[in-house]
Design a protein that fits this description.
20% helix; 312 residues; disordered N terminus; 49% strand
């Protein structure tokens, strides 16, 4: 009787023990919700990167040229924007800009305001010159999808080497810019995202065939080489690291053609790896071609789901 009871106990214990790893495994596995969340995080990041780059590049040209172009002009400075005023405050020149209409490439509809500040008597082509860009309820809406974001915050833009992008391949071989700051994005579903940025941009090439290589130089906690970090739209702390420099080409509409970044969400034990440079067949592009897709790998404790997604 005692042996029988012991056997029943051992079997019962074994059954209970066999269930324990199963429960743990469920927590380690990736659900469809995890994948959908990762896709949303990736899309958010790409949208905000695109708009941030657009605003910075336009501001560079604007400060140099001192003018805004109409929508019929070439895509080198802000379209459908107007100067409210230009003021001098102490030792700083402030440009007040209002956006109201399509971007120069016709893909983004924009409204809102921006303030550009640069020290009086300095010129953007000088090495080490600092420009501050403040966004005030700047709303960008993708024409193709209707997705929109509203950005508020301020970035500091440093022309490390000096020079102007419009003269790369003519007067300058390489120009380096660094961008730091903090931003808040509000999405059209009522959620929001807050983040810090520390991005280095290296420009090379020739006019009409420019290339920009992006890397991160931020640090937070145990993470380094960060390009962004903060709180995502789901309320989780995140850290985005560029592990292989991201290459953007003018001939490919400034889309990323190569590079890898990792997005960490510690509270969810989630790592999202984005690799750029794939074609419609989910194959790496050949040199000279422009990509249409990127690879997204979602990983938790060794469990990985891989997707190939369109760039836009």
């Amino acid at each position: 009787m005692k042996k029988k009871m012991l056997l029943i106990f051992l079997l019962a214990t074994g059954s209970i023990m066999s269930l324990t790893p199963g429960c743990s495994k469920d927590k380690d596995e990736l659900s469809d919700a995890d994948v959908n969340t990762s896709k949303q995080i990736s899309a958010d990041q790409q949208f905000m990167d695109d708009e941030s780059d657009r605003i910075l590049d336009e501001a560079n040209t604007f400060v140099m040229q001192g003018m805004l172009k109409s929508s019929e002009s070439t895509d080198i400075s802000p379209c459908n924007a107007s100067i409210d005023s230009i003021r001098t405050v102490n030792d700083t020149v402030v440009f007040y800009i209002t956006y109201n209409g399509l971007s120069c490439n016709g893909k983004i509809n924009r409204t809102g305001k921006a303030e550009i500040r640069i020290k009086r008597g300095t010129f953007w082509v000088q090495p080490g010159v600092v420009k501050k860009i403040k966004l005030i309820n700047y709303t960008a809406t993708r024409v193709a999808t209707g997705a929109s974001i509203t950005l508020n915050g301020e970035k500091t833009h440093v022309n490390v080497t000096g020079g102007h992008i419009g003269l790369i391949g003519i007067t300058y071989d390489t120009i380096i810019h660094e961008v730091t700051g903090r931003m808040v994005a509000a999405f059209n579903n009522g959620t929001s995202r807050e983040w810090n940025v520390a991005r280095r941009k290296v420009f090379t090439g020739t006019q009409g065939n420019l290339e920009v290589v992006n890397s991160g130089f931020g640090n937070a906690g145990e993470y380094n080489n960060l390009v962004t970090w903060g709180i995502d739209r789901f309320g989780n702390n995140f850290y985005t690291q560029i592990v292989e420099p991201l290459v953007h080409k003018q001939m490919c509409d400034w889309n990323p053609v190569a590079g890898i970044k990792k997005h960490y969400v510690p509270s969810q034990n989630l790592t999202i790896t984005t690799t750029f440079g794939f074609d419609d067949n989910n194959q790496p592009i050949t040199p000279g071609d422009c990509p249409t897709r990127y690879k997204l790998e979602v990983e938790r404790n060794g469990n990985i789901r891989t997707l190939y997604l369109p760039l836009h």
